[in-house]
Amino acid sequence: MDIALDFVIEHFDIIQSRVQGISGTANILNAFARRLTSEEHDEKIDTFVERHGAIFTAAETAVVGAIKENIASSITWSREHLAIVDSWLRLNYGNAANALTASIVLILSIFVTLFNR
C-alpha cells in the first residue's frame, strides 16, 4: 500500500491528466481510504496535499478529507484500544513465537509421516 501511495503522490499531476472522467482520480484515492491508518500515512497525505492540493477537483478534495478523517479515527482507536486488545490476545492465545513454533512442528510432523510411509 505504501508503494502505491508513494507512486500516486509522486505522479498525481500526470495521473490526473490521463485518467478519464471526473471521478477517475477520486476512485483511485478512494481505494486508499480504509487502508491508510498510521501517523506516517497522515504525513504522506499532508505531503500529497501540499504538492497537489492546488489542482484537486472538488471530488478529490472530498476524498482526501475522508482519508484524513479515517486516519485520525484509526490513530485515536489505536491509542485507546490497541494495548487492551494486544494484552487480551497474548493472554488468550500466547505470543506469535509460540504459534509459529507449533506450526513448524506440525508441518514437520506431517512431512515425516508422509515420507516414512
The number of E-state strands comes to 0
Largest sheet: none
Secondary-structure element order, N to C: HHHHH
What's the overall geometry? Answer: elongated
Could you give the topology of this structure?
Elements: H1 2-18, H2 24-30, H3 39-52, H4 58-93, H5 96-115
Helix pairs in contact: 1-3, 2-4, 3-4
Keyphrases for this structure?
single chain, 117 residues, mainly alpha, 5 helices, 80% helix, membrane, transmembrane, transmembrane helix, ERAP1-like C-terminal domain-containing protein
Question: Summary?
Answer:
Helix content is 80%, strand content 0%. By secondary structure, it is mostly helical.
Structure write-up:
This protein has 117 residues and is mainly α. Helix content is 80%, strand content 0%. The chain has five helices and no strands.
